[in-house]
Amino acid sequence: MEPSQKLSWESADRAFKRIRPKKVLLQLPSGLKRKGLLFADEIRRRYGCEVILSGDSCYGACDILPPPIEVDAIVQLGHAPMRLRKGVVPIIFVPMLIDLELDRLIATALPQLKSPVGVIATAQHIHQIKDAVRILQASGFKALIGKGSSRLSSPGQILGCDYSSATEIASRVNSFLLLGGGEFHALGASLTTGKTVISLDPERRDATVRKVDQDAFLRRRFAIIQALAEAKTIGIIVSSKLGQKRLRLAEELLRSARNENKKAELVLIDDITLAKLQELGFDAYVSTACPRLTLDDGASLGRPVGTPGELMIALGKMHWDDYAMYHWGFTTRRIRRRK
Amino acid sequence: MEPSQKLSWESADRAFKRIRPKKVLLQLPSGLKRKGLLFADEIRRRYGCEVILSGDSCYGACDILPPPIEVDAIVQLGHAPMRLRKGVVPIIFVPMLIDLELDRLIATALPQLKSPVGVIATAQHIHQIKDAVRILQASGFKALIGKGSSRLSSPGQILGCDYSSATEIASRVNSFLLLGGGEFHALGASLTTGKTVISLDPERRDATVRKVDQDAFLRRRFAIIQALAEAKTIGIIVSSKLGQKRLRLAEELLRSARNENKKAELVLIDDITLAKLQELGFDAYVSTACPRLTLDDGASLGRPVGTPGELMIALGKMHWDDYAMYHWGFTTRRIRRRK
Fold first, then answer.
1. CA B328 → CA A291, B51, B87, B145, B267, distances in Å?
2. Quick check: ipTM above 0.90?
3. Number of domains in chain B
4. Interval A77-104: pLDDT, tens
5. Cβ contact (<8 Å) for B68 and A269?
6. Which of B96, B112, B144 is the last residue of a domain?
């Protein structure tokens, strides 16, 4: 059964009224690219503006580049809004909402959940988070939602780079219910909180229990830390994408690496690929961009790619005991010094 | 034998003195990427500025994007300067010069040349063009150099998108001598001028005669024109790259295609790849970006990709007899109307 999904135009309607763009650049994620013509027509019909399709990849709300042509706004379909520090032009989000069959799925989750339950959701499912809380409460569970950082569009939302709505309530709950499919977010939530995460996937009939094997994960990461420690040359990757760019952190890491006699350089990259990393030929890399690439797709990058925290451990500036999954607010300035 | 090659820093020295950048973005073509660390060191040592390496592809002087981080200049190694209409920040070029063994190579070319000879060169060899003229003259040949368009850095230079220095003198010469290897530029020069092109390739011991089989080429292109004529949906590609972006031409083509009842959209793309074109799913494309991709790598793009002129033929707005290889100044406004 296909899960029911729909684009939510309400906030876009308001934004178009406010901005009145004459020309927009339309960005679509891979799954929606093929309907580009239809969506361009829809936007022209609704708002009477010119539309230029972007043919480049668009992996998320963070994936925004300074537009190389003059447009009055960027329209991004399929992603929930993200607050970016500096918008080059206004960005109008048209989120894709996917409805989960909550009653049925939560019923299959109940045997695995331990009250109190923290409820979290990915962008496509965030509109159902209050319903999920009500259903849990009706079943006799205590349910909590964390507010999270200002980077998130709503309380309870998690991003691959931001689990703050989960970590904030982790000490007060005994398990998490995640509205959202796939492995990555469940893995991240479990790793950052240490709790079992039960996820509801629109593609599955039953809830999925995910208690991450932290040991296996950490063993893999330790190999990367080892490679960073041994590397003579390190490329410190800064993303070109507006929502993934952390130049200041990259500069901090550069100084730390050079202080420990590494030959290190800042490397600006848009999409991070195996071909690019091999061509540059550094012994190892540290990415300050989306952690998904480092932690999830890392094996496909052909070279060791670590997180900022992993570099600091490799350089002996942070202790292995302090290992925590990468988080967005990471800075080397807050590393606590041990005696 | 490795051809002798060296970076030419003279004009960069002057530009650095004038601009005094504190921070630069360093772009390298594939072949030089691996020496990124060395070049970054060299630039820091010479000019005392911060350097950020670009890890993205850089196919030529035209391949410049608005930098997503604040830098005072872009430094591009390995490419001859190109005059870009609008520079976002100053661009400092450090050309790579490759010396041909002119005496030996031209000696092997003489039996194939017919006086007067037009002399043309690609960017890496342009510094030897006057020597080539002298050697030809000493051998009793008349030799000419065309000035070409303002897009070129020196008289006699040709680009994959600009053969104006050749076409300008085509009617006054009987053959062309090209300082430069590979097939693409020789093909382009022969196609646009209709003359035999003898090319001197740094990788070869003898001159290469190239009299293009125009018929075979045109048959391949006719298949593309046919596909464009039959396509219901057409994506008109505008490049994100500053030196390849021709938005006005793309808009002209869009209007022409829509007037002939095609469902057409402008598509903004940085690097044009098979994956992106397949994902978008248009029946056919027209590229207003670098013609090399369309004409040379076209077969690897998986979908029919035509030039602006080819679209106009497909739409019945230009005659097949007027087929000319794509050239940079193309506009639909100058198409002569036949009775």
1. 42, 33, 18, 20, 19
2. no
3. 3
4. 988 888 776 667 899 999 989 999 999 9
5. no
6. B96
